[in-house]
Specification:
Layout (H helix, E strand, L loop, with lengths): L1 E6 L2 E4 L4 E9 L4 E9 L5 E7 L5 E3 L7 E5 L5 E6 L8 E9 L7 E3 L3 E6 L1
Length: 119
């Protein structure tokens, strides 16, 4: 199994920056892609950004140019650098990982970290 634990959320003013971290432990060799999702109050959980094992990244249109996803080569820590934050970025941010197909392609989730924007 893989365990994912997020940190770094908090209250920040609009226009500010925040960096989220996701610490991965357990059978991290099983991890292929990792990423961040977010869920705003009363809304569905949406993709924010993903990064594959070869370093390819993908971003939601709403965060392109403002957020940057990165991860350590050893896959132990995933980051999300968030700049120029907007009130609509308020959400619980979840770390996500998916295993290689050879390991059943299992999906893993962290418990979430709350990011709140004040205008």
């Amino acid at each position: 199994q893989v365990q994912l634990v997020e940190s770094g959320g908090g209250l920040v003013q609009a226009g500010g920056s925040l960096r989220l971290s996701c610490s991965a432990s357990g059978m991290i060799f099983r991890l292929n892609a990792m990423g961040w999702y977010r869920q705003a109050p009363g809304k569905q959980r949406d993709l924010v950004a993903t990064i594959t094992s070869d370093g390819s990244t993908n971003y939601a249109d709403s965060v392109k140019g403002r957020f940057t996803i990165s991860r350590e080569k050893a896959k132990t820590t995933l980051y999300l650098q968030m700049n120029s934050l907007k009130p609509e970025d308020t959400a619980v941010y979840y770390c996500w990982g998916v295993g290689f197909p050879g390991y059943g392609g299992m999906t893993y989730w962290g418990q979430g970290t709350l990011v709140t924007l004040s205008s």
